Request: fold
Amino acid sequence: MNIAILGTRGVPNYYGGFEQFAAYLSKGLVELGHEVTVYNSHNHPYQAKEWYGVKITHCKDWEYKIGTAGQFIYDLNCILDARRQNFDIILQLGYTSSSVWGWLMPMRKSVITTNMDGLEWKRTKYNKKVQRFLKYAEQLAVKYSHHLIADSVGIQSYLRHKYSKPSLFIPYGADLFNEPDINHLATYRILPFQYNMLIARMEPENNVEMILDGVVASGSEQPFLVVGKTENHFGRYLQQKFRAYPQIRFMGGIFDMAVLNNLRYFANLYFHGHTVGGTNPSLLEAMASNSLICAHDNIFNKSILGDDAFYFKNHNDVAKLLSTTEKKDHKLYLVANEEKIKHKYSWERIVHQYLNHFEHILGLDVSPFKPATKEQEVIAVAKQVKRA
Reply:
């Protein structure tokens, strides 16, 4: 198959989220014998035309000059280029700045399948006008896609009830971390299992403030690491509000996976406050890194963690967890979440689920572990010719 991936800044991953997903998926599909093109921003740090066999097309991206509006121009440039190609499948990751150009998608010669991401319009960082636009963009993404993908059962249920449209549930993935190195802790002046932490973007819907209010209310003097960029307005507000509490350490953004995995592995408690989105990457990575997880009580988190985590609804719950919970007493939670990563959220499994989806929507209908027969390939080509 000839597959294109749109909607990210590009590969390899320098940003997180969908970029990390695109890197794993594109590389995995190439290893299975398919041709994959990923669209990259023209100013992406990686400027080569190929990465592990993945073809890269750089398109002009004006975000660095004109801000958010530049994202719309970048997505338009990617779609215009895709129109000139002969992709069997176009996988669109998200819709925030691309679905307004959905009418330009080559829907008659390529099958468009869209990962709908989370409920972007619920993000409180956006004002009411932007939230209304994002609801409209969501509608357009549904309209201009042949198929929809939901990366959580919560999003799948929402799409079914809101638009009466089926979607395929394929979650995000993670790799198990089994090689801890205590030497990584020395840089941060912390001791194994004598600190707690969170990793999040500094946005209100991630409940960072609620968690830190809980840290203060608990009276705990153990270090609490806050990993995430603080250059935005909310990040600066949090730093100002909690500057009098030395145990709360704002670490800024950390993107070295070896460092992140070790910080998660040796933490006592890992707090996950996200309330918007599907299968959140940082949550799966925490599960894969031997973290004892305390998560905000909502459908997205519960659909992933089930009974193998602690939950909080307010800062008092956070304070109680910090005062009463130790990782060493709950090893069964760690084992259960590791099993989930192995059998449900491994990257190998996710890549094969996407491959199975692509084969199905092209009419191949084969097992993800079995190549198409010659007869199936002929049928698929005939369908493509008819669609064109």
